[in-house]
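Q: Got one fold?
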Amino acid sequence: MAAGSAPMQLHLRATIRMKDGHCVPRKWIYHLTEGSTDLRTEGRPDMKTELFSSSCPGGIMLNETGQGYQRFLLYNRSPYPPKKCVEEFKSLTSCLDSKAFLLTPRNQEPCELSTN
């Protein structure tokens, strides 16, 4: 994540491995809202994103809400994030009335983050 080219913008880049094993680069532009902790996703006016601070290296925690859904996400570059990171995430989400916890399996190495 980095500051955007315009004030009040954040850019997030990731490379996501698809089911077929291919790595797909993705980019999101978040717009900061003055006087609020909410981020608005460009192109998704119904979506609101909140970032959470974390002591977990190589990871990011966020809460996304949209039309009819809310999800808490922990992304990490490590195939096996440190146990304390997962426990911190579970602790944050449990106090927010989370009903289920899903840990997706990582059977392959993480994708390389593209440089452009």
